[in-house]
Amino acid sequence: MSPSGPRTLAAPPRSSWRGRRLHPDHARGLRLTLAAAAAFLVAVPFTLLAVLVLGDWSPLRRLDTTVTDALVGYAADHPAWVRLMTLWTDVFAPMPLRVGALVLVLWLVRRGARQLAVWVAVTMTVGGLLSPLLKLLVGRPRPDLPDPVAEAPGLAFPSGHALNAALAAGVLLVVFLPYARPAGRRAVWTAALLLALVTGFSRVALGVHWTSDVLAGWLLGVAVVAATAAALTVWRADPPGRPAPPTGRGPAAGTGS
């Protein structure tokens, strides 16, 4: 071909499937792979725990009984502690958390972060549907104590409070953590951990759930957050309130992060 003739650009080499899965900037790259792997790895201990509960494994039953008896015994002698735990468990119950998630979805939509808004809605909905379904499948009764300090209807495994608190904590981290300053990041982490841990603990402290119910709720919540984040690749969504990058073909066009 003559030097003055038209030139054709060689097509870039196609990367392997493994290379695309582990590429940090590929749309279905490293972070999606890690999120999918995390969802799988968290779902495994949840499944194992469910099998142990269904099989009435005696070491797990003894552990649940010992912890519940100790915490309920303390609560019976400290009415102020019962009121505090009851207040916390009511404020951060599944329904108030869902209302808070709806407010967050509307705020994200108004800010133009529609992908994050969809992810929040999907995550809370999937978790909300899984909890009653799994309760029916496992059919585990709540603790039947001679002197209860609180009561709750329905079945026990997994804890709906713990599950929804873990979902809400995950939403806080995914939505706000990437765009917070260092002090703000510590505040977000603290709020998320307190929300998940204290809500789950309150259910055992009040004697309405076994410890394994709460642990199962936490595990399932983390698995749902990781799975939906992987499916919707929310880390590639634009930050709330930040304009989307340009999509033109010129050299100044952005690519999104």
In short:
This protein is mainly alpha-helical and 257 residues long.
Low-confidence segments: 8-27, 242-257
Shape call: globular
Beta-strand content: under 5%
Structural class: mainly alpha
How many strands in all? 0
Instruction: Count up the helices.
Output: 9
**Estimated helix fraction:** 55-70%
Determine the oligomeric state from the structure.
single chain
Computed over alpha carbons, the radius of gyration is: 23 Å
| Major β-sheet profile | none
Order of helices and strands: HHHHHHHHH
In round numbers, the mean pLDDT is 82
How many structural domains in the coordinates? 1
Measured between the Cα atoms of the first and last residue, the distance is: 41 Å
Descriptors for this entry?
257 residues, mainly alpha, disordered C terminus
Q: Could you describe the 3D structure shown?
A:
- It is a single chain.
- The protein has 257 residues and is mainly α.
- It has one domain.
- 65% of the residues lie in helices and 0% in strands.
- α2 packs antiparallel against α9, α7 packs antiparallel against α8 and α8 packs antiparallel against α9.
Annotate the secondary structure layout.
Blueprint lengths: L16 H6 L7 H25 L3 H19 L2 H13 L2 H17 L3 H25 L21 H17 L5 H24 L5 H22 L25
Helix pairs in contact: 2-9, 4-8, 5-6, 5-7, 6-7, 6-9, 7-8, 7-9, 8-9
